[in-house]
Amino acid sequence: MSMSAPSHLTNAMKAGGQQFQVGEKVVSLYSGAVHYWRLDRDKWDEILDKVIGMGFNAITSYIPWEIHEIKPGEFDFGQIKPSNDIDAFITLCESKGLYVIVRPGPQINSELTWFGYPRRILEDSQLQALTSMGSKAVLTQVPKPIPALCYAEDKFFEETAVWYDAIMKILAKHAYPKGNLIACQVDNEMAFFFHINPYECDYHPASIRGYREFLKKKYGTVGKLNDVHRQKYASIDEVDPPRRFEGQKKEDIPVYTDWIEYREHYLVDSLQRLANMMRERGLNEIPLFHNYPHPLGPGGSVSGITTPFNLLALEDKLDFVGFDIYSRKELYDHVKTVVSYVVGTSRYPFIPEFIAGVWPWYLNPGGFEDEEFVTKAAMMHGIKGFSRYMIVDRQRWLASPVSVDGRVRKENYEMFRRVNELANSLKIGLMSRRVDVLLMANRDYDRLEAASVLVTFPGDFLEPLLGFSEYPNYMSVSEKPLGFKEPVQMAKSAWFMKNYKALTDTGHLFLLSDSALPLEKLQAYKALVVSSFEFMGTDLQKKLVEYARSGGTVVFGPRVPELDEQMFADTTIKDALNHAPSTPLNVDGVSIGTVYTIGKGRMIYLPAMEDANLCVTAALKDLDVIKINKSDLRLDVAVHVSADHDRIIVFVANPTAEPSTAKMQLSVPVKSMTDLWESKPVVVEDSAWTDTLPPYTIKIYECTK
Length: 705
Prior knowledge:
- This protein is of the alpha/beta class.
- The chain has 18 helices and 31 strands.
- The longest helix has 28 residues, at 253-280.
């Protein structure tokens, strides 16, 4: 299901196969963020003991360039301000048996005024990212707006190298197996400084040169580029990126989606360059990772879980990649979407920033009950490790379980202690989600949605009051059909959501992933559910047909594609269907689709989903897939199994504001059940049980077969 461990790591450290291994031991990383430079040094010892008391086994800390730099090339690591002694802080953590994860930037955010950069870096006009109008790209964040930086400019990396030269000397001394430093984050939430809007950033000359190099690598010749872009350039060096969406027909699309694809590679290439700088300075034997900012899933911009974030491409350069999660109990589907996508895609499902407390300007902060619910939801859907941000509060942060002076907030503290205790007893790190169905987000359609945004505006660090954000959604994208039967950039979200909700309602256990997932990873599933419109990427068309031929079931619709992503004829799927035996898919004598036998498997075409639950049930009914029957469709279920399949953990969530008393029945045999949170047995008969779930509750049952 997940990608294997990267080959460059030694046997001492591994991050792959959905596990994190230190030496010979598989470790579940339950980390808490502690910012040493923000605390009185004489409080470090007491505070770390309080964190250990909650069951955390690792400490995560930002290391801010902004705080340590005295002047260019000179740094304070405790000589002036004792709390800046990062070497001593890591040593203290090691003496207490704690693992250490560091985040040395160069960008860290951390609610610092300058996002971790020395102010001189932000004020250097050569380093500032530009908008499509040629002005500075500005991040409107608290307490002051700051310029976004260009990660395509060589001078940026030259400046960062001076910082890395200083800090990596200290970190390399502690890198495992010499010490307990077991992972390092490369930069932070790299997303064009929240300028997700594609026509807002980055039009810096260095980035435009990078775009042209991307086109040269992709197309090779100007003639091939002209064929695809329907242009008459004399040289690729003449190409200027699009600065607003003006597409009128389908043939216009590649001009815009190439810019969207380049923006993905801009992030990947810059992070690879930073990672290589870290490895060259002594961190070559520990995993390096990155944290994309949280994307919006159901509850926000539906299936907006790909561009400009390209997890699979970035994991070719780094060891693992996660998404940050800041959420409340009312946003259960958001947590489910993000976690399910990471579990279905990443080699190690980790939440680099997982809400604990909140920044003061968060519009609707929840309490510790929200954090309990969201934590259980993340475990439910398969997360294997996390870093709680912040486990110790400080300026510009509120309501963490431990205060800066070492006092604890009793309810918050006890909740984290119980959750960590439960997570360790469950041994989730050694278990895996039991799923047979994969719901795929189509990267080509997400790129079109991003490309067709009509409103250009800067990234906003504050959640907009009207729900109008830098992420594309129905409020901001073009409604033009572009020559298709409907505007794909809008219809793709509706179709994805129909499948997402139908799979949930009908009790089919599933994960999410990306249309770029390799064939060998897709073959771990019995069925794929994917949206299809008049166009679909050539590679994906071939992959879906080959997946079916090898024995899988593909459920797709509402259109049979006849074009590729460049709007040229591609009838790979259509040809396979035309040469395949077919039978109608009937429900109560009414045809709702067509079943095509392709090799050892099937492709099931659903041209409409007026009753999505009925369609999904009919399409998957002949497959031996794990599912749960439930009397209340609002409930959600996930099943985890041990490697030997002798141990089963069942999670049941009530993500609503209403109580539910429901009967549930698993399609796998279960003889007995215990409610682990309440430590009480549950009556089970014929793999069925009845239980009452209060509002926003997740029950966790340990089962025997």
